[in-house]
């Protein structure tokens, strides 16, 4: 029985030492990293320096015009008509769609660009056009397009028009429990 008590005492000591080591590891690691100048998350004054996007061409302005066309029983439009951007700068525009029908509908948006030679330089990071949308009866939704213009855009292109046509997918038939 005394051997069991000795073993229990040793295990408790080991557990306390392991807990203390784990507790001290985070500040110890932070001090080592700060001393070596690696993996520094914040500056010494506590402020975080934000990286600047060096790909943004602030010497150029490009006007982006937005258009929305609906091929079906809904309202579809951009929430703003245009914006002026710098190539390389990340931007967001919202499009709004309203299903005016008393039934659920599946729809898809297809983009087009003018001038056509600007298309390879219009880079979408996030877009509702990437997948089919399901709209509930009378549902209104705002959907983002997050994009940037590639700085390699030819200098003679000053205006780009992004136009979406929003159309119903599946012929307007939605399966119900009775079907």
TrEMBL record:
The keyword Transport does not apply. Coiled coil: none annotated. It comes from the Bacteria. It is found in: Cell inner membrane. It is a single-pass type II membrane protein. Keywords: Copper, Membrane, Signal-anchor, Transmembrane, Transmembrane helix. The keyword Membrane applies. The chain crosses the membrane at residues 7-25. Exerts its effect at some terminal stage of cytochrome c oxidase synthesis, probably by being involved in the insertion of the copper B into subunit I. Belongs to the COX11/CtaG family. This is Cytochrome c oxidase assembly protein CtaG.
């Amino acid at each position: 029985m005394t051997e069991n008590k000795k073993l229990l005492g040793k295990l408790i000591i080991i557990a306390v030492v392991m807990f203390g080591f784990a507790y001290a590891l985070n500040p110890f690691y932070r001090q080592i990293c700060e001393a070596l100048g690696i993996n520094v998350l914040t500056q010494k004054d506590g402020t975080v320096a934000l990286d600047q996007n060096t790909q943004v061409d602030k010497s150029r302005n490009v006007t982006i015009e937005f258009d929305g066309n609906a091929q079906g029983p809904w309202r579809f439009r951009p929430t703003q008509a245009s914006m002026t951007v710098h190539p390389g700068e990340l931007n967001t525009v919202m499009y709004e769609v309203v299903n005016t029908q008393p039934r659920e509908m599946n729809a898809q948006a297809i983009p087009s660009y003018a001038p056509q030679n600007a298309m390879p330089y219009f880079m979408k990071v996030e877009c509702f056009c990437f997948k089919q949308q399901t709209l509930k009866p009378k549902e209104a939704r705002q959907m983002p397009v997050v994009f940037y213009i590639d700085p390699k855009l030819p200098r003679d292109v000053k205006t780009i028009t992004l136009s979406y046509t929003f159309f119903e997918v599946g012929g307007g038939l939605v399966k119900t429990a009775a079907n």
